[in-house]
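Deliverable D4.2, example record:
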Amino acid sequence: MKRLPIGILGSGRGSNARAILERIRSDNLAAEARLVISDVLDAPILDTAREFGVPNAYLPPGRFRTRLEPEAEDQLVEMLREAGVELVALAGFMRVLHEPMLKAFPRRIINIHPSLLPKFPGLQAWKQALVAGEKVTGCTVHYVDEKIDHGRILAQREVAILSNDTPESLHSRIQILEHELYPAVIAELCEKYEAGNL
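Output generated by the structure prediction step:
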């Protein structure tokens, strides 16, 4: 079986990274995690990578809050290429990627976002949905482009918003679906990779 070499980028807890790595470990996902990278030195996602025996690294992001320094983004490309990564999965990576990454991995970078895009891009989308009085929200896996939470949608799952929902209760239900949807989409991309169509 030809396994799709993936790299995972994250800034925080990395619960989606864990969901992906668990699926790989249980042999339910024809992928191979080559590298986990975080822009936060003590991010729990790096501990998760170590727990699963995946090579991991901290990438100093530089002085900007929402994007990488150009030199750092060039370094990120180099790290992923050296690891032989063919697909980059963003798992709570809190920086907007720009030309170096988008050019190096065209239609090979995906992200999961906790809303039914194009509704509620940006931070804390589940809170945005609650404040807006929505009845339904969910999660979206999409290709990454130069805009925030934009790019072609690959898959979505819906979550009903309950009358007694708090931001925390709603977010936790969305995350349960994220942990199913993200590996499922990667599994489809693995099939395309094996067939030479990625």
